[in-house]
Every structure is written in C-alpha cells, then in structure tokens.
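assembly run, all chains below
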Amino acid sequence: MIKNIFTLNALDFSWILLMIITSANALVAETAEPSLAITAIICCSIAYKGRRIMDYFMELNHANETIQFFMRSYFHVFPALIFLTDLFSEELASLTTI
Amino acid sequence: MTITATDFNLNGSGSVTKEPETLNKIPGNRAIWVGIFAELTEFALFFLVYFIAKAHYPEQFNQGPQQLNTLAGTLNTFALITSSFFVAKALASIRMDDPEQSIKWLWRAVFCGCLYLVIKVWEYHWNVDQGIETNTNKFYTMYYYMTFNHLLHVGWASGSLLWAIHQLKVGRYTKQNHIGLTAIACYWHMVDLAWVIIFPLLYVLR
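ok done. output:
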C-alpha cells in the first residue's frame, strides 16, 4: 500500500525533477564558463532527462524491448557524441574538411 | 511474469495495475513507432550537422548561445515538459475510466503547446530586433533550422491532441480501447524528447 502511494506521486515527482534540472541547465547557460566538465554535466543531464521522460511519461520501462533498446540507445549515443565532439573538435574538423 | 499491484504501476498511477497495451508490447501501434523513429532519425541528422558545423566554426558556436534569449528557451522547455506531464495524466485518467478528466488534462497540454508556439514566435521577433537572422552566421542558421523544424512538430502534434480530445468527446476512446490516445501520447513525448537535446545544444553549451 505504501508503495502504491509513492508510485501514485512518481509522475508528479518526475515532472518536478525535470523542471529543476531544466532550471539548473538555464543557470549554467547564464553563468558558467565553457569547459569540458560543464559539457559532461550537461550531457549527463540530457541522458537523465531523456531516460526519465521515456520511463515515466512514455512508459517504456515495461514496453517492447526492441523499442526500449533503440530509444534508450538514442539518449546514450547523443549525449556521448556531444561530449566527444567537444573533446575532439579539431580532429572532427580535419576529418570533415573537403 | 506475474503482474501485481505493487510491481506494475503505469504512469505512476498505483490504482491501475493491469494494463496490457504497453507491458512488453508496443505502446500505441506499430505505425506511430515507424513515424517516431523516422522523426528521431531526422533530428539525429540535424544533430550530426550541428556537431560538424561546431567543429568548423567554434567561435560562432561559442558566441551564439550567449546572444540568444535563454529565458525564452527555458520557458519553452518548461512548457513542453509540463505538456508531456499533462498528456501522461490524460492517459492515466482514461485508464481509470474518467474521460472527462482525460479531456481536461489534454486541454492543458494543448494550452502548453500553444504557449510554446507563442513564446517561440515572440523569441523570433526578439532575435530579429537584436539583429539575429537566418544568415547572420552558421550557428544561427542551425538555430533557425532546428527550432523552426521542431516548432512545426509541436504544431501538428498539438493538432493530434485536439483530435484525441474530439475522439474522447464522442466516446471513441474508452478505458478498454484507447490505443489511439496512447499512440498520440507517444508522439507528443517524442517531440518533447527532441527538445531535451535541442535546448542544451543551442542555449546552454558553448
């Protein structure tokens, strides 16, 4: 019963959490100087927000495993790419120069 | 796998214990997921172009986000996350056999969708006043291309929410049969997910 009461609020909790993370992101945008550490934190926040929306709003945590796999992969691959392209920007530029 | 009240709580609603449509199945229908993956592929291509452009024009991509209206981007993120929350609530309501409540949640979601569109149009006007246009530099070209494309998605996804409201009103979506509403909800969440990546790329990261 206690678990049910908690899970009844899980959706509301997810919403509050997402709003807080978004506010923190906005604060970073306004105040923080760019650095790899900031990029890493933002990438983690993207991955976490995506996972939270997919699991609790989209209900993929119980759904078809193939869909789960591709959707979750998307939110692992792109945050990782964001970080890697910051880390290896010069290499990427030389690789993509025609 | 045994489904029990304690280990299966869809949408955070503890009272809904047995919901066959998403448990180990495709939420909504196959067609909507073909659409969702096609849309996500399209956004993935935008992101790849962004990465390459940023590598070639680091100065423009460093200065660009500082000139944009972070408040507008943040408010838009709030609007989309909140609308997703309302859509999830609407789905929970129909599962609890409360179509009236479901309609109310969907209207709130539509309001958030409209709010997003209004903020975005205002932001574009603000940009033009600051001298930020599509051809100002490569960063702003990316910014307009990505955000306008996303705006279009919010527009027609809001239309699909209106369709869902109509279907609920005429009694076509019920506790027993609401796969269409689940499909529309999944599409709406996908639009939100795309913005979860776009917002930090354009407004936060430098």
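Chain A touches chain B through 55 residues (CB under 8 Å).

Chain A has one domain: 2-95.

not gonna interpret more than that til we talk
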